[in-house]
Design goal:
The complex is a heterodimer of chains A (798) and B (184).
Chain A lengths: L1 H11 L10 E9 L10 E4 L4 E4 L5 E7 L2 E8 L6 E7 L3 E7 L26 E2 L1 H6 L5 H5 L5 E5 L5 E5 L7 E5 L2 E2 L20 E5 L14 E6 L8 E11 L4 E11 L4 E12 L2 E2 L4 E2 L4 E13 L3 E15 L9 H9 L17 E17 L3 E17 L12 E14 L8 E15 L11 E16 L4 E21 H6 L2 H4 L4 E4 L3 E4 L2 E16 L4 E12 L3 H5 L1 E4 L4 E4 L7 E13 L3 E26 L2 E25 L4 E14 L13 E9 L7 E9 L10 E5 L4 E5 L8 E11 L7 E9 L23 E9 L1
Parallel strand pairs in A: 1-7, 11-14, 33-36
Antiparallel strand pairs in A: 1-4, 2-3, 2-5, 5-6, 8-13, 9-10, 11-12, 13-14, 15-16, 15-44, 16-17, 17-20, 18-19, 20-21, 21-22, 22-23, 23-24, 24-25, 25-26, 26-27, 27-29, 27-30, 28-29, 30-31, 31-34, 32-33, 34-35, 35-36, 36-37, 37-38, 38-39, 39-42, 40-41, 42-43, 43-44
Chain B lengths: L1 H19 L17 E8 L4 E7 L10 E4 L8 E10 L6 E2 H7 L4 E9 L3 E5 L12 E6 L3 E11 L9 H4 L2 E12 L1
Antiparallel strand pairs in B: 1-2, 1-4, 2-3, 4-5, 4-8, 6-9, 7-8, 9-10
The chains are: A mainly beta (798), B alpha+beta (184).
């Protein structure tokens, strides 16, 4: 602590005190691409509140400046705002180059950071403050507050973001430029990242962000890291939370140092720890969790070039509700018929089996260089290692062994550039290659559910934007991806024969081992994807967006190769080698209105997915352990339609009302059967009270209503029960009832300490301790969802 | 600029070369260590007559169904002593899982459930360290003649002691086999 304070003092002391205020600061503003002068740029010196304009020759001048360090902000109508720091100790002249052309489009954008593309879709964004106040949460939980996004969960710590009901391999997560490869194919595999490392999180609800991938037919979650200014500064953040439910909390701290020369470095870490969580009436035994993460960055950022090296590591250890571990249909029926979980123990911080332990590491090296012709050229290499251990209840000497021990190593390399074009307002080209290696440790003594495989990807894309007039901008993108996958798989011989794979893929067989057959399946996929969009500003307040996106996704390893008991779902799952890529055609529109009283956006969409891969029950398998339901993957054409709505109305200077609502309907085209696990209609209404006299004070009363999902496929089956000597219905499809939760939040800014800004908040979730079950939580069959939670959080930036 | 582009092309080359140096050896086959393939219940009468009830499923959770055989009909009004063997026959020699069950007796319990037109009495003959029933050894007494089924269930981590019913015991089902039984 002493050290931090002294480092802080050192940072403040770099402002020189000896004053001489007779200097002149002059300079010129030039276009970065061709050095042509930019007139009418606004140049401000932040510290002095002084502002001037550049003239026809791009030059400007400030008189009577004291010696010292200053922050210069240059704004220009057609350029991106640039911040720069200068040191004045004599008459000083500086040439400042702006990225002109960049960004005609940016004028109509709410948040115009990044590469300037993807401006033709409604793009909800979580700010740093949203993230800081949700510091204790997982990504999935945090995103489920966004309209059109819900959390598909296995308990309260394993939550995947689901965009309009599509999730897992259909949603691409970009974490600080790296496409996350963390075995996302499993519904109970949550993304392994720490939200605290994000500066903002953007959600794109269709496949249009082709610079990231062509297969995100559900959409994108884009996690943006903090931007580090080129100036001599030291800043940091600290976040602390404590909560009653789970009787634990989280701690996050980070520091960043940057210099005038462009060197910077940052270090941050998070720890979270919880014991058993609680439903209103009982303890959810074995639902505790531990999580820790660390990230370190070092880089040099100059105007023309930059380089950065980053390492991050996230480790999660998550207990799975003990009562959800079952051995077949009999146990399932028993658990379903019981009002309360069959196993309830005393509260503990211990995490026992069943549990997951996952470590995800990322090492990235990247650099950029700015050229007059090719624009900003980015090159990066990323290494990811995802190691997943799953522990089940086992017997004898295997008791402490994992049942699943999977490692996925991903290496990728990419290059992109933004060439200057006379024809387009902005242009971007990119090329990328990737190698994935998945292997499992045979010492588990459990047959692999996912076989060992290698996958190679190669992708190239082009994006272009064109402003047709001041009010109308077009965007276009095209991408081509090639994938090769090669696996080694031990099939049950009976299944290999039953599916007739022997005659379809005779080349795959390596050796017949009796009950099992060793095979080497190899597949190639070539997928085109494209997007076209427009952004039309009707007037200063309203904008219309329209976007067409074509996406294609390869079947994932689980859909191709699954074959065996999926313990956490207590069912046998069977993939199919014959699958081809899913093709998604999406049309989405957006209307946005904003004035000083009302902010409103509506986002309807319609999507057709050809050969959508779905999982459905196809029978009951008799084993020595009794009956298990068999679920097989199948391809079918489906359609989805829906709408997201967000609005905020300011009633007076103290009170505002916020509302958001999301609706999605989805069916199989041929049969009209609804798709499984689609989010029910949800509406969140909030009354926000602010007080002008209290800084950052906000009182929020939130009403969160979720209707019952009335459209679902019937996946029930019958199982033989020895006691009644009869077949009884096992109801694994009827959705739970509607529920209504009230949440309350009070937050305010504490008195300033130096430069720091500290916000204290108290939040109560599920105020009335309502008993409810969530259709999208796979543990809803066995236990109620979380009861009341009081969360205290303190967050500070210094 | 030239330098920058050449460095990046070298990086690309490095990755593509790396991709070619691929290992083509198949990974080790995993033998299911704790899979139960076989349940053998031997019923021995005072007369020395032994009847074997057997369920065998060599591919475990694989698509083949278990083969269930009963060697003979039971005699009416007779007491049998039952003993249970649980095996993993995917390995050679077969792994005697009943030994593990016996070692972890306080985490296991067998249940015998009859159905149809049968009139049987069963009683536990072995107990765990807390004197609660285990069931690797049991007695079975037939009364009048009849036909029906007997289900042998093994529960892992059941509630112990329990009320003797499957629904009361809870836990996880490790074995559930329905044997057709005729008493004549």
């Amino acid at each position: 602590m002493h050290r931090i304070i002294s480092v802080l003092l050192l940072a403040f002391s770099t402002v020189i005190n000896a004053q001489d205020c007779s200097f002149k600061f002059t300079g010129s503003i030039l276009d970065q691409h061709d050095d042509s002068p930019l007139s009418r740029a606004i140049i401000s010196i932040e510290e002095l509140n002084a502002t001037t304009f550049s003239d026809e020759r791009g030059t400007f001048s400030f008189d009577n400046i004291c010696n010292g360090h200053y922050t210069i902000v240059v704004e220009h109508a057609q350029c991106k705002t640039k911040m720069s720091s200068i040191k004045v100790k004599d008459n000083t002249t500086k040439i400042l180059r702006l990225e002109h052309h960049y960004e005609k489009l940016n004028e109509v954008i709410v948040s115009g950071s990044g590469d300037g593309f993807n401006q033709t879709v409604i793009k909800p964004t979580l700010s740093q403050e949203d993230i800081a106040l949700g510091s204790n949460q997982s990504l999935g939980a945090m995103l489920s507050k966004v309209s059109g996004v819900s959390g598909l969960s296995s308990g309260n710590s394993i939550i995947k973001p689901s965009i309009h009901g599509l999730h897992s391999s259909r949603v691409t997560i970009i974490n600080a430029g790296v496409r996350m490869e963390d075995q996302e194919w499993g519904a109970e595999h949550a993304p392994n990242l720490d939200v605290n490392q994000a500066n903002s999180i953007e959600i794109i609800k269709n496949a249009s962000a082709l610079q990231y991938s062509g297969d995100a037919i559900g959409g994108f979650v884009i996690i943006k890291p903090q931007r580090i200014p080129i100036k001599d500064t030291l800043f940091g953040k600290a976040r602390w939370t404590a909560q009653t439910n789970g009787q634990g909390g989280s701690l996050h701290a980070g520091m960043t140092k940057s210099t005038d020369f462009g060197w910077y470095g940052s270090l941050e870490g998070t720890f979270k720890g919880y014991g058993d969580f609680e439903a209103p009436d009982y303890i959810l035994s074995n639902t505790g969790m531990r999580s820790n993460s660390v990230a370190a960055v070092i880089g040099k950022n100059q105007f023309k070039r930059g380089i950065e090296l980053k390492y991050s590591r996230v480790e999660n250890k998550i207990g799975i509700l003990r009562a959800s571990h079952l051995g077949g249909a009999q146990d399932q029926l028993l658990a379903l018929n019981s009002e309360v979980p069959l196993i309830i123990r005393d509260f503990t911080y211990d995490i026992d089996r069943p549990k997951q332990e996952v470590v995800h590491e990322i090492l990235s090296a990247k650099g950029y260089i700015k050229s007059r012709v090719l624009g900003k050229i980015n090159v990066r290499y990323d290494y990811q290692n995802n190691h997943r251990l799953e522990f089940d209840i086992r017997r004898g000497s295997d008791q402490n062994k994992a049942s699943m021990d999977l490692s996925l190593i991903t290496q990728s390399i990419s290059i992109d550039m933004a060439p200057v074009s006379n024809w387009f307002s902005n242009l971007k080209l990119g090329l990328g290659g990737r190698k994935l290696q998945n292997s499992s440790d045979p010492n588990t003594g459990v047959k692999r559910l996912i076989p060992d495989f290698n996958r190679y990807d190669l992708g190239a894309y082009v994006l272009a934007g064109k402003a047709l007039s001041d009010d109308l901008a077009l965007e276009f993108g095209a991408r081509l991806d090639y994938s090769h996958i090669k696996a080694f798989k031990y099939y049950y011989t009976a299944l290999w024969e039953e599916r007739n794979y022997g005659s379809i893929y005779p080349d795959f067989v390596i050796e017949d081992l009796g009950t099992q057959t060793l095979t080497q399946p190899k597949f190639d996929y070539l997928n085109p994807s494209a997007a076209l969009g427009l952004n039309w500003s009707l007037n200063a307040q309203s904008t219309i967006l329209l976007n067409l996106a074509l996406g294609a996704r390869n079947p994932n390893p689980s859909e191709l190769f699954s074959e065996g008991l999926h313990h956490s779902a207590s069912r046998i799952e069977i993939g199919d080698l014959r699958f081809t890529s899913e093709i998604s055609k999406n049309i989405s529109a957006g209307y946005r209105f904003q004035n000083n009283k009302v902010t409103f956006s509506i986002h309807p969409f319609l999507r057709f997915i050809d050969r959508f891969i779905l999982l459905e029950p196809t029978g009951v398998q008799q084993t020595i352990r009794g009956n298990f339901q068999v679920w097989s993957y199948r391809q079918a054409n489906v359609s989805l339609a829906g709408m997201d709505l967000d609005a905020r109305v300011v009633l007076n200077q103290d009170i505002a009302l916020e509302t958001q609502c999301a609706l999605v309907k989805s069916y199989e085209v041929a049969t009209g059967t609804p798709l499984i696990n689609m989010p029910p209609v949800n509406a969140i209404n909030t009354v926000v009270y602010q007080n002008q006299n209290l800084p950052a004070f906000e009182l929020r009363i939130e009403s969160d209503h979720t209707w019952r999902q009335n459209e679902y496929p019937n996946t029930n089956f019958e199982a033989f029960i020895p006691e009644s000597q009869s077949f009884e219905l096992v109801d694994v499809s009827t959705p739970p009832d509607a529920y209504h939760l009230m949440n309350l939040e009070i937050r305010g800014q504490l008195k300033n300490l130096g430069k720091s800004k500290t916000i204290l908040s108290l939040r109560v979730n599920n105020c009335f301790n309502v008993r409810y079950r969530n259709y999208l939580n796979s543990l809803r069959f066995y236990a109620d969802d979380l009861g009341r939670n009081l969360l205290l959080s303190l967050t500070t930036n210094f | 600029m030239i330098k920058f582009l050449s460095i990046s092309s070298i990086l690309f080359l490095a990755l593509s070369l790396h991709s070619c140096s691929d290992d083509d050896t198949p990974p080790e086959q995993i033998n299911e260590e704790e899979v139960i393939t076989t349940l053998v219940v031997t019923l021995t009468a005072d007369s020395g007559q032994a009847i074997e009830l057997r369920s065998q499923d060599l591919d475990g959770e694989g698509p083949n169904e278990p083969e269930i055989t009963v060697s003979d009909n039971l005699a009416a009004n007779t007491m049998y002593v039952g003993s249970i063997q649980v095996l993993n026959q995917t390995v050679d020699p077969a792994e005697p899982i009943h030994e593990e069950i016996s070692e972890e007796s306080d985490e296991h319990q067998f249940f015998y459930t009859q159905g149809g037109n049968l009139d049987l009495n069963t009683a536990y003959l072995d107990f765990d360290s807390n004197d609660h029933p285990l069931g690797l050894a049991f007695s079975l007494t037939t009364n009048t003649a009849g036909q029906g089924t007997m289900t042998v269930t093994l529960r892992h981590e059941p509630l112990k002691p329990n009320d003797g019913t499957l629904s009361g015991a809870g836990g996880e089902t490790d074995i559930s086999v329905v044997f057709p039984i005729t008493v004549e």
